[in-house]
């Protein structure tokens, strides 16, 4: 593969490193390919995934995303509900890594809806009473 494993001894650590950084391999098949590789497979190394494929919920993400990508259902991905649910449940265990941005907005919206409901009910009663 592209990685090289080097074992070091205590003596190796006592001298300055002579390691050389190797420039990016221009022949790397995953470099600059985008999300979908030429053969139709998903490029899990694509920076566009923002590391989702390698985080603590990486396996759940890969399962859900693969299911959606390869779905042949009339409504694409409709057969992937269980995988997406598993991914969401995993992400909820790591709120620092996967912030739930919409959660506060939804709570505010639902509390505003609750506040409006009694007013709407009172208006509806008044309209019925005036006819």
Automatic annotation (TrEMBL):
Keywords: Disulfide bond, Mitochondrion, Oxidoreductase, Protein transport, Redox-active center, Translocation, Transport. GO terms for biological process: mitochondrial respiratory chain complex assembly; protein import into mitochondrial intermembrane space. PROSITE patterns: CHCH. It holds the Pfam family CHCH. InterPro entries: CHCH, CHCHD4. Transmembrane segments: none annotated. It comes from the Eukaryota. One of its GO terms (cellular component) is mitochondrial intermembrane space. The keyword Transport applies. Its main location: mitochondrion. Gene3D superfamilies: 1.10.287.2900. Residues 57-93 form the CHCH domain. One of its GO terms (molecular function) is protein-disulfide reductase activity. Residues 106-115 have a biased composition (Basic and acidic residues). It is found in: Mitochondrion intermembrane space. Residues 22-31 have a biased composition (Acidic residues). Residues 11-32, 95-131 are annotated as: Disordered. This is MIA40 protein. It comes from Alectura lathami. The gene is Chchd4.
